[in-house]
Specification:
heterodimer; A: 443 residues; Naphthalene 1,2-dioxygenase Alpha Subunit, Chain A, domain 1; Rieske Iron-sulfur Protein; nine-stranded antiparallel beta sheet; seven-stranded antiparallel beta sheet; 22 strands; 25% strand; B: 174 residues; alpha+beta; Nuclear Transport Factor 2, Chain: A; six-stranded mixed beta sheet; 6 strands; 41% strand; globular; binds FE2/S2 (inorganic) cluster; binds fe (ii) ion
Amino acid sequence: MVDVNSLVDVKNGTQAKRIFWDADIYKLELERIFGRCWLFLTHDSIIPNVGDYTVTFMGEDEVLVVRQRDGSVKAFLNYCTHRGARVVNAEAGNARGFTCTYHGWAYGLDGALESVPFEKEVYGNVLKKDTLGMKEVRVESYKGFWYGNFDHSAPNLADYLGDYRWFLDIWMDGTGGAELIGPPARSILKCNWKTPTENFIGDAYHVGWTHAASLKALGGPLSVLAGNKHLPPEGAGVQITSRHGHGVGILFNAGPALMGGEEGAMAAKWYAENQPKVARRLSEAQAKYYGSHFNASIFPNNSYLWGTNTFKVWHPRGPHQIEVFTWTIVEKSMPQELKEAVRRSMLRTFGTGGMLESDDSDNMESMTNLNRGPHIVTGMLNSQMGMENDHEDELSGNVIGPSAIGETSYRGFYRAYREYLKAKDWDEIRANNGKWKDELLNR
Amino acid sequence: MEELNPVAHEIYIEVQQALFKETRMLREERWREWLETMVEKDIVYRAIVSQLRFRKDNRYTGDKDVPSLDENWAGLDRRVAQMESGMQWTTDPAERIRHFITNLEVFEGKNPNEYVIYSNCQTVRNRRVYEEMTYCYGRNDIWRRGADGKLRLARRDVDVDERFVSGKNHNFPM
Ligand code: FES
Ligand SMILES: [Fe+2]
């Protein structure tokens, strides 16, 4: 039995190192986090037409996501209800139905078992086909981004995102919507799934140091941080954490963070020109953040950088390994030339051949694998930076750390992490809705 | 695929030597020298992985190519600058990268001074104590002969066989 309370000390801003290593903790995570949180599946732009499908993971479970005849989306566990073989071996495509490779049971786009070879002859009337459809998973979309959830008692996706939507809307909706450019690149890293998630959610601290060489070489607004020559000035950004653990770190007006030269100028112009539009669609307060750089994660394992425009899912594969899916984010209304520049810049920075991606993965792997040492794994991790300055953000309803560099979103992520691991069901989590900020704000 | 004319034997050998020299230069971390002396200014340097699709599926409209590198000269220059910065701790201690190039075919290109070069490559990359990574890919290159008579890389399309990247990343000279 995992002693969850010993894993995270919210008030003190620390976590046990074991969370990156222990198999029993991982098992509990699969059950209580991946089994009940909303997990990213795909975007409308990847499966636009009836019969379009894509295969992905929810935790360790392989999932098939299919555009239905009525335009809706359904998702199914990608196994056959006969003997359990994989139904779809392609990663994406367009189909009229899906036929298992083992004995040929055939399913419709809606997952229903439609035909069984020689059914009359070999089964007679035994088979209850209407109970043998592919196992369906609950799905919902927010602004075209589809997520799945194994728990029917979970809040709907919009409520799960909650007040965090105030920030999401800025890039997902501000100029009329965002989309992903796929197919996703896929790579294996030998790290625990939380190491990249926490890094993306709230680590502006490492940028000037881990990425010193990349920043120096690339130019763009973030390059002044290279080699820790400068701290971002007072008031240069904020960090946010929200009810269900989602977080974001914001560097004001650093949108085209790593795009230098003409491409950077093109991106900067785009942000400047569109700010008034965002103010009209959303609010003046949100428009102030439009054109900033966001580093962020949606709990539990979906991270993105907006400005650097990468969108990632860190699928867990055991406690010590992940498979990364990476897409490029673009705003739908961007001119094609800018979309192309954004895509190229994303590849150069956070793609599978990216300069910064490779910097990060080295840290994430060592943070994980050193824990095989029984003396190393007993220690604590520290995320106390800026603890005394956290307060409520009246505009968005979240908890805010009022500086560009700090660990507010780390603390919020692990607060939620502990809450999920402790709770036996969503009702228990819901009961905390009114008091989730208390420990973070030390009251 | 269109018919291509194989080049004469001396040119084949010349191209082969250029490719071998290139890999040795990169192995010896002479990135700037490589960029300045062996790469054309209008270079297109791409690497792709292919998404898995059913053979008969011609209705899906999504791209099949999954790019991991899509660089022009300026981008390669930034990557070289990263290595030259003296701050690149991920390659300190140094990585060791060894290319094996085989199945070399050399054809006359569209323009009289260009060659089309197909090859198969296996690259073994070692870093830190335990990380040995192997990458298997094909390369379609175009090399161009300059006014000085030297061959330079004008285009490289790397086609990686492995669908996922098991060797961490494609952030190395392919
Ligand atoms: S396992 Fe799928 S048809 Fe038998
Ligand atoms: Fe990073």
